[in-house]
Design brief:
Blueprint lengths: L1 H10 L4 H18 L4 H18 L3 H16 L10 H14 L4 H13 L3 H12 L8 H15 L12 H18 L8
Length: 191
Amino acid sequence: LAARAHKVSMAFPDRAEPLIWEGIVVSSLAGTKGGLVAPGVVKQAKTLYEGALKLQPEALEGSAYNSLGVLYYKVPGWPLGFGDKAKAGDLLLKALAINPQGIDPNFFYGEYLVETNHADQAVAYLERAVVAPPRPGRMVADAGRRERAGVAAGCDGRRGGSCAGIGRGRRLARNVSRDAHWTGRVRASPR
């Protein structure tokens, strides 16, 4: 799939969208490879997102900012990788500015806040992810994202579900943060 995505990027060198999708494929591959292979693959995804930002930052509703932000908070910092929590926050906020009601920017900024020990602030973004408008052709991905956001925020997790469990959500968000830290995994979530 990565090779096919690269061919599409090469066929449309002036378009940001193929670079973003290739970056998503490559970063997902990094999540499955792990170990010594992942750092090189993650750097490749980073380069693809940066290229897309140079061409058209608003492409796919700011997805390059969002995906690059996710890499920056999931990848370890120096000397192992390029991870940078502050830069991640800046990139994720740029994605939110472009697509404030979108499921991905709200979910990933909420997850970032949880993983950076700001669980109380994360709940509002995770709740927005639960009730975000559906994306055409992305029903399966959106359902999974809503469920994960709902669990972390103490919501039903389905479109239109109740988010009344804010206190419970804060406890769950802390648990999500603790579990993510404990496992130490770099997760590159598919779109």
